[in-house]
Amino acid sequence: MRKFLVAAGAAALLLPLAGCGSGTDGGSGGTVTVHVGYQSKTINTVTAGTLLRSLGYFERQLDALGRRDGHTYKVDWQDYATGAPITAQMVAGKIDVGSMGDYPLLINAARGAQLRQPTEMVSVTGYNLRGGLNTVVTAPGSQLTDLGGLRGKKVSTSIGSAADGTLVRALQQRGIDPDKDLHKLNQQPAVGASALQAGSVDALSQFVAWPGQLVFEGKAAALYDGSALDLPTFHGVTVRTAFATERPAVVDAFLAAQIQATDYLHAHPLEAARKVASATGLPPEVVYLYNGPGGIATFDPTLKPQLLAAFAQDVPVLASEKLVGKIDISHFANDTFIRRAVGADYDRQVASLANPAPVAGTDPVCGGAVTDPATASEVWPKGATATVPLRTPSCLLRYLAAHPASGIGAAYVPDALTGTRWFAGHAVWAVDPSAAPDARYQPFVTRENARSWLAKHPGAHLVDFAQAVAGAA
């Protein structure tokens, strides 16, 4: 992986060098300030940002390091909405460690290489092997039923982001030119969300957690599930090479802290969701959709070959947006630090694609252990300190039928076609009368996914959520 090759390049609009700091304020025995750029609301990065900051693990690791080397360490946390300003600050020498998505990571590498301020990716935060971290949504009640309906429409996205990549690829698969056949607006996520609600755009393509938040709040409906692309998308940690060379022990400390935060996320998912919600203003139920057991995001810091290989397929999209040309960034993916942090178990962990935090437990409705991630469902009762695991979506519907809706905080089910976890009350439901009772009702993120499934299941048909609950009962 140290020699991972991909063709990428520098943007046409280059970022100027604004400084050349190293993150240090003194020599031996002095104060070292580590500047960390993160995206609090991009909740796939919480183990290197929001959650890590709230837990204080990095500071504790640095305190321990300081007792060994005589330095005093401070952390300067800098919060941004997207990866672009983090890259700008990194190539200016003003951020030492940053976290961002796969497309911004490529731009980070390309700009760093061209401006001779190289960076390297040292770990992964959250990933989804099929691409489910990105979603295209429309306004509730929209007449749009699939991406084909976007011809001639206005679509908001953030150019250069993974969400834009999902949109471009999905449109191209349908023979739609994203530059000529629709009006694509380059907007920050919050601006695009407001535009969708105001009716000034017809659809919004964004990354976690914007689609889930808008859908949960009844402000949007899913149009396209990024998992339909079946191409990995992920977020990772990048460091300035000069800083990593000068302060390798600090990078080791950061990754040790990231691993601690990942372990905390897996061991205390509800508490972690509440911490992130408190820091960001996001509903905890939305954070849990992505970051909870069996969530849309899998958290594993190792540099998996499947994720790195996806970089090569990202480059043409960035090139089409004139964000990159061609440049050798063969040393960008560097597993030296994370391999050292994980230790002897690294090779096993990097080879595993199983979610280390699956939905598990005993189903109180249908009985038996919850073991199949393809059907495992979950209910989070309001105010509860534990969730209720269910073996299948049909079992979940039966649970909902037996409990008042006022007592349900959120209910989660996996898309029967793509596996993307979604809110049961906002899913598209189908019923197959010929199926066994525990498998009779099937949920989907989008109508497009449901249609694909129905085409292979004669006799099955769509029902609304209320009908599904009543029928399952």
From TrEMBL:
It comes from the Bacteria. The keyword Signal applies. The keyword Signal applies. Keywords: Signal. Residues 1-21 form the signal peptide. Gene3D superfamilies: Periplasmic binding protein-like II (3.40.190.10). This is ABC transporter substrate-binding protein. The lineage of its organism: Bacteria, Bacillati, Actinomycetota, Actinomycetes, Kitasatosporales.
